[in-house]
């Protein structure tokens, strides 16, 4: 997937595949998105001459318009996504280039699925713990129980987090049985990302559907963490059928590149998740560094 060629800067007949402006693309997308509910402001975005210094104003305006109603929020999101699909380029494996919307018409290509179950037995009841270093004193501690609830409400009072976030943290602390995620499925796009929830979900015994690039070192780390250190389950895309391979024979066949093989990854997630979740709750999170 690639940003569109910048025809606004150079006439189409002279544009090259290397002339791709992230700023022009962002301006175009936000203009189309906002125009779905406010055409005048959408035109203002398109005519913005100082995008790099003023884009935050337009992003905030988009958020404010979307917050006015569910209808607005969905219209803005759909219009923005439609523009991305219609303007971004997709470089196919055979070398030719099509628009992303055309590439995503491929609904058949997919991966095989590998699944590994953790061997560590769950012991005792889990509780939520949050590592915390006080800004004022520099003191480091691990917050849990009532101390975590008290701190969460202080954060809400200070404006650090929203009130409903503090309420949610308190609810989890007071209901430790919620920490057993064996009946929950989580799709992690960018499973090895440092900002992602892989380790937390692994520790809580979740069903993890992991997507990450096809590098053996990544899959060695993810699969072995689940297998040796948890009672979670990890499912992942493979280039060949899973027949019980282990070690490098397994790791080198794992992974899916969301930028290079976008339709294939989409199809695999679409078809695999229902088989794993079997009608139970599913959460999808994107944590890839693109």
Automatic annotation (TrEMBL):
> Organism's domain of life?
Eukaryota
Q: What is this protein called?
A: Uncharacterized protein
Species annotation? Hemiselmis tepida
The taxonomic lineage of its organism, from the top, reads: Eukaryota, Cryptophyceae, Cryptomonadales, Hemiselmidaceae, Hemiselmis
